[in-house]
């Protein structure tokens, strides 16, 4: 742990406006009891402020079949586990990613580790994602089943029983396959009306074509 610098901003509860939840505070005078000012209400008070020691963590970021490597500063005594999400700054963009693998040694992967023990963290982008959609024809002819890929925000909701439009395609969702790294779903496949999966958690969406097959020469 180390003391903050003057002007640094840290999350702390404010005795005036937010005693239970942290708000952003500016450090006015560092010390054993630092003088800080709440940026929400301007209240000045003293708090013990310690900044966790950080180290650079190697991160591999995957998206749509391609990968880039970057580093992220993280508290070395903190835990990291599969499914965690955090922000990374890559040459392409600032992106939200989810942890899919934690490497602590050559060919040694674990589900959870201390940051200081990690060699490489493997992640995939989840703020904007590509989702595979299988479209079954109205008449049920399996040979006419086709697949498309849709690009949507990671928090987009796919719901069984709802009708979606993707470009010229209009489809009704019949089933959802959940990714193995997705948390808090009952099953790996959901097919009851009202079942919902976020796009970032969806491995595949099964649908029934609702587009009109009628056409006119006029």
Q: How would you describe what is shown here?
A:
- The protein has 218 residues and is mainly β.
- The protein has three domains: 39 residues; 73 residues, Beta Barrel (Elongation Factor Tu (Ef-tu), domain 3), CATH 2.40.30; 81 residues, no CATH class.
- Strands 5, 6, 8, 9, 10 and 12 form a six-stranded mixed sheet that branches. Strands 13, 14, 16, 17, 18 and 20 form a six-stranded mixed sheet that branches.
Which residue ranges are poorly predicted, with pLDDT under 50 across at least 5 consecutive positions?
214-218
Biggest sheet descriptor: 6 strands, mixed
| Content of β-strand | over 45%
Percent in helix: under 10%
Number of DSSP helices? Answer: 0
Structural domain tally: 3
Count of beta strands: 20
Q: What is the first-to-last residue Cα distance? A: 76 Å
Query: What do the pLDDT scores average to?
Result: 90
Mind telling me the C-alpha Rg? 24 Å
Helix vs. strand class: mainly beta
| Gross morphology | elongated
Order of helices and strands: EEEEEEEEEEEEEEEEEEEE
InterPro entries: Znf_CPxCG-like
Region (Disordered): 1-21
Protein name: Zinc finger protein
Pfam families: CPxCG_zf
């Amino acid at each position: 742990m180390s003391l903050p610098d003057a002007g640094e901003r840290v999350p702390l509860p404010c005795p005036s406006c937010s005693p239970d939840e942290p708000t952003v505070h500016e450090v006015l005078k560092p010390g054993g009891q630092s003088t800080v000012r709440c940026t929400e209400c301007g209240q000045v008070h003293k708090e013990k402020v310690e900044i966790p020691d950080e180290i650079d963590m190697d991160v591999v970021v995957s998206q749509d079949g391609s990968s880039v490597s970057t580093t992220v500063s993280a508290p070395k005594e903190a835990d990291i586990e599969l499914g965690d999400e955090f922000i990374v700054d890559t040459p392409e963009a600032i992106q939200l990613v989810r942890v899919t693998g934690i490497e602590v040694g050559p060919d040694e992967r674990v589900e959870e580790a201390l940051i200081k023990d990690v060699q490489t963290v493997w992640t995939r982008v989840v703020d904007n994602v590509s989702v595979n959609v299988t479209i079954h024809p109205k008449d049920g002819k399996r040979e006419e089943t086709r697949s498309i890929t849709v690009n949507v925000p990671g928090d987009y909701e796919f719901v069984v029983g709802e009708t979606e439009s993707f470009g010229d395609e209009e489809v009704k969702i019949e089933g959802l396959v959940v990714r193995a790294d997705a948390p808090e779903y009952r099953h790996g496949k959901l097919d009851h009306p009202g079942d919902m999966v976020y796009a970032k958690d969806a491995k595949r969406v099964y649908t029934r074509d609702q587009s009109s097959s009628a056409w006119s020469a006029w």
